[in-house]
Amino acid sequence: MGALPDPVWDHESVSTADAPGPRLVVGLANPGPDYEGTRHNIGWDVLVELASRALPVPASFSTHKRTNCEVAQTRLADQSVILARPRSYMNLSGGPVAAVAKYFSVAPTEVIVVHDEIDIDFGQVRLKRGGGEGGHNGLRSVTSALGTRDYLRVRAGVGRPPGRMAVADYVLKRFSKLEQPDVPFLVQDAADAVELLLRHGLETAQNQVHTA
């Protein structure tokens, strides 16, 4: 990957040190019913689960035209949280993610992105900050638009494609009949990981999630 483009805002003007604002959790996915239930859309499924846990009542999503995202403003883990899904296709996710982060004054390094990960066994969840994109077009777009790789990531393992199946075909397929009974547990575990990250920070959340 070449040099990253200039960020879409002045990072120094977006700081939560003095006046903490909401936390931003983004779920990567493709829009439309044709993609519902596919491996690539697990990030959106996790956000729907998080919205159902919101207090005092479940949160609902609405179109936020200024950022081209579907957004729910709510509370999770005793914090003000913005849940957002880009309404663009996966490989163009970055623009909406950067726009919603800027709109709600969330520093790029504090953005939490939930996404599918083929390099993790199905059913496993891992957390990290930064690193490469591993061929994930959504992450590549987010990195480019935010101007940094150092955002937080909740990686929902969907496993590698069988045989010689192309990765692009694999992630756009729905989970197999064998996998489907365990998908709700993956979604719940990833949502739990987001809440741990919000409440305790990366290191403590990793210690709990990675040893479960």
TrEMBL record:
EC number, UniProt record: 3.1.1.29
Catalytic class of the enzyme: hydrolase
The keyword Cell membrane belongs to this UniProt entry's keyword annotation: no
Residues holding tRNA: 35, 89, 91, 137
Site annotation Discriminates between blocked and unblocked aminoacyl-tRNA: residues: 30
InterPro entries recorded: Pept_tRNA_hydro (IPR001328), Pept_tRNA_hydro_CS (IPR018171), Pept_tRNA_hydro_sf (IPR036416)
Quaternary structure and interacting proteins, as annotated: Monomer.
Name assigned to this protein: Peptidyl-tRNA hydrolase
Gene: pth
